[in-house]
Specification:
Layout: H1 2-20, H2 24-34, H3 39-47, H4 56-72, H5 83-92, H6 96-112, H7 116-127, H8 132-148, H9 152-165, H10 169-177, H11 180-185, H12 189-201, H13 211-224, H14 231-243, H15 250-266, H16 270-283, H17 285-290, H18 292-310, H19 315-410, H20 416-429, H21 432-436, H22 441-451, H23 466-476, H24 480-487, H25 494-504, H26 509-516, H27 520-534, H28 542-555
Helix pairs in contact: 1-19, 2-3, 2-4, 3-4, 4-5, 4-6, 5-6, 6-7, 7-8, 8-9, 9-10, 12-13, 13-14, 14-15, 15-16, 15-18, 16-18, 18-19, 19-20, 19-26, 20-23, 24-28, 25-27, 26-27
């Protein structure tokens, strides 16, 4: 029965765990796993988490994961105010990778609040205490910040730091190339040209025709186009770079055709510029519509082309371009709002589905608990019925045993000693048979009281007056009880002495069970214990060995 209850308990616990679903820690782990590929899904998982229920580590992970999800989705980081706690935890826990990530995101949070200097100082201060490989990562972030801020002087300083931290010539080449954009933006085209000339001659220069080489050539063309005397050379270099992109369709080359129009206009090649403009209008619809900056750039190139042809600057076109820029800004803001609204609707739908799932799980949990409770109640009732039936069977066996004792005591063929002893026991038991015919709890208590009338020293849990019985056994069986105690003092328990004496007197196992109020199995266990104490093998008759030993003691 106890195994059934154990199995039922395990089943209930399993169902409870399954019905409750994932806890907040599990949701956080799932959000971290899908963050890079599905930041929107990660964000929705995070919204279902109770931040206050998390431990310190999970709180730190939650704040960092939520901020990164916002960042990957292009959302503002203004509301990510928990990052400082994450930084402090990761630093104290010596989790360097998470610590660095948290500082970088915190810097972007500060920039969203327009605290640009504070953001830069945060990364610069951290950089001083980190090894070189982490310094590279932090300086790259600072470089991107400076480009966005149009702080090109700062950009050049940072590239110098990156060059010093480089581990290989190839890495130094990559960082040297980063100087081109700041130099051109500062109007230092000659320095940019000189730098590129040196990079092309460098032993670590990329192979001719490779993507890195084409990327450098395009920068080289842009640098040359800043001066009228080298504008044509710039067009040839850009055309060569485009021609080397073999197999690429015009729709993919539009981003290179736009600067090509600019170069052709600088070189005075108006017709070539118009040709590229037509290619862009024909094949670049998708690219221009998806990139507002490119669309604005294209309109400016058209205005410049018209100016070169007519010598007149169209105010109308300039106004339309300004209007286009404003529309682009408004469209971006509208799309952002629409995206956020769609995202919130998706979250609400996901939340409704989640709540529906929880309700279904609770319903099934209720059904299972009711079913399991009914099963346990049925098993309990069966157990109680079985127990009562067992007791009735035992009572019937006791009655049969008592009847056997009575017949044996009245049977002339029975050994005279046994018959005398059994009569004495039946006289001691007195009215027991009458009560035994109806073995209720009340009758059992009455049996104990009847057997102890006039003898207050006899324990209430026995039916036999052993102090009266032992002398009879000694008289009939040559001082068996007295010799047993002398030969084996304190070897046997009181119950074992009773069993040994009754076995010597010829009582069966069932009869002994009735007299000492124990089951037959308990009598067998006691016999095994007696045999072990005497050192008798399981198949040997311990009573024969015991009788022989006591006979030798009496002769001695």
């Amino acid at each position: 029965m106890k195994y059934i209850i154990y199995i039922a308990t395990v089943a209930v616990i399993t169902v409870l765990l399954h019905a409750c679903g994932k806890n907040d820690s599990d949701r956080l782990s799932a959000a971290i796993q899908v963050l890079d590929e599905r930041p929107d899904s990660a964000y929705m998982l995070l919204k279902d988490i109770d931040y206050n229920s998390l431990d310190e580590k999970d709180k730190a992970d939650f704040a960092l994961t939520r901020a990164r999800a916002n960042m990957y989705m292009g959302r503002s980081l203004i509301t990510d105010t928990l990052l400082n706690q994450s930084i402090n935890y990761f630093k104290s826990a010596c989790d360097t990778i998470s610590y660095v990530d948290a500082v970088i995101v915190q810097a972007k949070h500060l920039r969203s609040l327009e605290n640009i200097n504070e953001a830069n100082n945060l990364i610069e201060q951290m950089s001083t205490e980190m090894p070189d490989d982490i310094k590279k990562t932090l300086n790259l972030e600072l470089f991107h910040f400076s480009i966005k801020d149009k702080n090109y002087i700062k950009s050049l300083e940072i590239t110098e730091h990156l060059i010093k931290l480089a581990d290989s010539d190839n890495e130094r080449l990559i960082h040297e190339t980063k100087k081109i954009v700041p130099l051109l933006s500062l109007g230092r085209s000659k320095e940019a040209i000189s730098l590129l000339d040196s990079l092309f001659k460098s032993p670590s220069a990329p192979p001719v025709g490779s993507d890195a080489w084409i990327y450098m050539r395009i920068h080289y063309a842009n640098a040359l186009s800043e001066q009228s005397e080298t504008a044509k050379q710039a067009c040839e270099i850009m055309k060569d770079a485009i021609d080397r992109m073999e197999g690429a369709p015009d729709s993919k080359l539009v981003e290179f055709y736009l600067p090509m129009v600019n170069l052709q206009l600088n070189a005075g090649n108006t017709k070539e510029a118009e040709r590229y403009l037509k290619i862009i209008e024909k094949h670049g619809t998708d690219f221009i519509s998806s990139d507002p900056v490119a669309a604005y750039y294209l309109e400016l190139l058209k205005i410049a082309s018209d100016y070169q042809k007519t010598g007149v600057l169209s105010v109308y076109k300039i106004a339309n371009t300004a209007l286009l820029l404003r529309n682009v800004s408004n469209n971006l803001e509208t799309k952002k709002k629409e995206r956020n609204l769609a995202f919130e609707e998706a979250y609400d739908l996901s939340k409704d589905n989640y709540e529906l799932t929880i309700k279904q799980q609770r319903m099934w949990l209720t059904i299972i608990i009711i079913t399991l409770s009914s099963f346990i109640i049925i098993m309990f009732l069966w157990y109680m019925s079985h127990r009562r039936r067992t007791r009735l069977i035992e009572a019937e066996e006791r009655i049969d045993t008592l009847e056997g004792l009575l017949k044996s005591a009245n049977n002339p063929a029975t050994d005279q000693k046994q018959r005398l002893l059994k009569k004495l026991l039946l006289q001691q038991l007195g009215i027991i048979r009458t009560f035994a015919e109806s073995p209720t709890a009340q009758n059992q208590e009455a049996l104990r009281k009847i057997s102890n009338i006039g003898n207050s020293d006899t324990p209430l849990d026995t039916l036999v007056k052993w102090d009266d019985l032992y002398p009879v056994i000694d008289e009939l069986y040559e001082n068996f009880h007295d010799n047993l105690l002398k030969r084996y003092p304190q070897l046997f328990s009181q119950r074992e002495v009773q069993i040994i004496c009754l076995i010597r007197a010829g009582f069966s196992t069932k009869e002994i069970g009735v007299l000492i109020q124990q089951s037959s199995n308990s009598i067998y266990v006691s016999k095994t214990a007696i045999r072990k104490k005497l050192g008798v093998q399981p198949k040997e008759d311990f009573m024969e060995a015991l009788t022989s030993s006591l006979t030798n003691l009496q002769k001695a």
